[in-house]
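Long-time lurker, first post. I've been practising inverse folding by hand and with some scripts of my own, and I keep getting stuck on stretches where the C-alpha cells seem ambiguous. Below is the full C-alpha cell string for one chain I'm working on. Before anyone asks, I'm not after the true native sequence, just a reasonable design that respects the backbone. If someone could post their per-position residues I'd love to compare against what I wrote down in my notebook.
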C-alpha cells in the first residue's frame, strides 16, 4: 500500500488551484440516472470516488465518457465527463459496489423516481459513526414508495410513480436532502422539503436539476419547494469548487506559516472556517474567486469550534482544524455534533506529540510548541489529511500509511503542496 512521506518544517508559499467538490460531484453524477439524455459535467475532480461511482452507475446502464473519450481507453481522467443513462438496465445496486462508498446509496432516489423500483444495498463508507439511512427511507415513503429491508437491501417500489408530499427531516441530513430532491423532482405534484440541508453542494445539485428541467425553489434555505415534472432532459453543469479542499489547504498554510493563495474557490462557502482562522491570528484575504492565507511569525491562538450543518463549522474540516490547534498557544475545545465517532485522528496526532484529551463529543487540545515526525496511519478521508497537515509542520520525517483514504477525496495532493514548497512525496508500496 502506498505511503506519503513528509519532511516537515517548510513554510508554504505559492498558489493552489482548487478542484471541483467531491461532495457535489457524486450527487451530480447520480442525477444522470434521472434522464435518458446526456448530462455533461465540467470541473470534475480526478478522484478514486469518481471512478468508483462511474463503475456503480455503469452497472445500472450509464454510459460514461471522460473528456470525449470512452472511459476504458482514456489514459487519464479529464475534468469534463458525460453521463448517459439511455435506458436503465438494472435497478439493483449490489452490496459489493455500494459498500465501497456510502454516497452510492443515493442512487435509490433517481432509480425509484424514474423506474418505479430500486433495490439498493445498505451502505458502508467511512468508519465515522453509525450513519443510518432512516431519513432517506422515511422521505421516499412520504413520497408514496413502499419500502422494506430484505437481506441487507433497501427495496423501494412505486409502480404508479412517486407522489409529491411534505418531507420533514427530524435533523439536517445532506445525503437525505440530495435523495429527496432527486425523487421529488420527478414526483407527481408539489413537494416541500422541511429542515433541508443548506450546503452549497445541495444548491449545486438543485441548480443542475433545474438545468435538466426540474422546478426547484429555495435550495440553500431550510425549506425547498419542488414542482414535480414528468421527465428530465440532458444539461451541462460545472461543479462548484471544493470548500473542504479549500479549507484544508488554508489550515495547512496557517499551520506551517507562509502565504498561499487558493484559486478558483468561493470564500462565502467557508465563512465559519475562515472566521475561526482569523480568530486564531491567521491572515485571511477574501477575493472574488480566491482566498489568500498568511501567517508570518505570530503564534496560533486557541479557538473553540463546534461542528454544525452549513453555514456552521463543517465536520469535514474538524480534523484539520484540530491539527492546527495542536500548535496553538493555549487550549482549544473542539466539539463534534454531527458524528459520534469522528475523533479517530486523535490517537494518531498524539504520535506526533499532540496533547488532546477526549471527553465524549469534545476534544480539548493543549497546544504544544513543537510536533515531532512519526509513522502514522490514516483512518478516514478527512482524518488522513489532518495527519498530512500536522506532518508538514512537525520536525523531521512523517510517514502516513493507508493513503487510499486520501485518494478518495484529494486531487493531486502531493503535487499541489510540493508546488508551494512542501517536502512531500508518495512512496509506492
Ligand atoms: C455528513 C455531513 C457532510 C459531510 C459528510 C461526510 C452535515 C450535516 N453532514 O453528510 O457535511 O460532507 O458527512 O463527512 O454536516 N442521519 C440519521 N439518519 C439518516 C441520515 C442521517 O440519523 O437517515 C444522521 C447522521 O447519523 C448524522 C446526521 O444525521 O449524525 C447528518 O447526516 P448526513 O448529513 O446525512 O450525513 P452525510 O450526508 O454523510
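-- Answer (accepted) --
I ran through it position by position. Result:
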Amino acid at each position: 500500500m502506498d505511503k506519503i512521506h513528509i519532511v516537515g518544517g517548510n513554510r508554504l508559499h505559492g498558489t493552489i488551484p482548487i478542484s471541483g467538490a467531491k461532495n457535489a460531484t457524486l450527487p451530480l453524477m447520480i442525477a444522470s440516472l434521472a434522464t435518458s439524455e446526456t448530462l455533461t459535467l465540467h470541473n470534475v475532480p480526478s478522484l478514486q470516488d469518481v471512478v468508483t461511482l462511474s463503475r456503480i452507475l455503469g452497472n445500472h446502464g450509464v454510459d460514461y465518457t471522460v473528456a470525449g473519450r470512452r472511459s476504458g481507453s482514456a489514459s487519464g481522467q479529464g475534468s469534463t465527463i458525460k453521463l448517459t443513462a439511455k435506458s436503465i438496465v438494472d435497478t439493483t445496486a449490489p452490496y459489493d459496489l455500494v459498500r465501497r462508498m456510502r454516497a452510492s446509496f443515493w442512487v435509490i432516489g433517481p432509480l425509484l423516481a424514474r423506474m418505479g423500483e430500486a433495490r439498493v444495498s445498505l451502505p458502508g463508507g467511512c468508519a465515522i459513526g453509525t450513519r443510518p439511512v432512516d431519513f432517506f427511507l422515511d422521505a421516499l415513503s412520504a413520497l408514496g414508495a413502499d419500502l422494506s429491508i430484505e437481506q441487507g437491501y433497501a427495496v423501494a417500489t412505486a409502480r404508479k410513480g412517486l407522489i409529491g408530499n411534505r418531507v420533514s427531516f427530524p435533523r439536517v441530513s445532506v445525503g437525505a436532502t440530495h435523495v429527496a430532491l432527486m425523487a421529488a423532482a420527478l414526483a407527481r405534484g408539489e413537494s416541500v422539503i422541511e429542515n433541508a440541508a443548506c450546503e452549497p453542494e445541495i444548491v449545486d445539485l438543485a441548480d443542475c436539476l433545474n438545468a435538466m428541467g426540474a422546478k426547484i425553489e429555495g435550495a440553500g434555505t431550510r425549506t425547498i419547494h419542488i414542482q414535480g415534472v414528468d421527465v428530465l432532459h440532458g444539461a451541462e453543469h460545472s461543479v462548484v469548487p471544493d470548500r473542504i479542499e479549500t479549507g484544508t489547504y488554508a489550515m495547512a498554510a496557517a499551520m506551517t506559516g507562509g502565504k498561499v493563495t487558493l484559486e478558483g474557490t468561493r470564500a462565502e462557502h467557508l465563512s465559519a472556517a475562515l472566521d475561526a482562522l482569523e480568530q486564531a491570528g491567521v491572515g485571511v484575504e477574501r477575493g472574488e474567486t480566491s482566498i489568500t492565507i498568511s501567517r508570518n511569525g505570530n503564534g496560533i491562538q486557541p479557538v473553540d469550534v463546534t461542528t454544525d450543518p452549513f453555514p456552521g463549522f463543517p465536520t469535514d474540516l474538524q480534523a484539520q482544524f484540530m491539527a492546527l490547534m495542536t500548535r496553538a498557544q493555549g487550549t482549544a475545545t473542539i466539539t463534534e455534533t454531527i458524528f459520534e465517532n469522528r475523533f479517530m485522528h486523535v490517537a494518531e496526532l498524539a504520535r506526533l506529540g499532540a496533547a488532546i484529551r477526549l471527553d465524549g463529543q469534545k476534544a480539548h487540545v493543549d497546544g504544544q510548541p513543537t510536533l515531532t515526525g512519526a509513522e502514522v496511519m490514516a483512518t478516514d478521508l478527512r482524518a488522513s489529511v489532518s495527519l498530512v497537515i500536522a506532518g508538514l509542520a512537525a520536525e523531521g520525517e512523517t510517514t502516513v500509511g493507508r493513503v487510499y483514504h486520501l485518494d478518495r477525496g484529494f486531487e493531486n495532493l502531493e503535487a499541489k503542496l510540493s508546488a508551494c514548497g512542501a517536502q512531500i512525496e508518495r512512496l509506492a508500496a
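A couple of notes from the structure itself: The radius of gyration is 21 Å. The CA atoms of residues 12 and 421 lie 6 Å apart. Happy to go over any region you disagree with.
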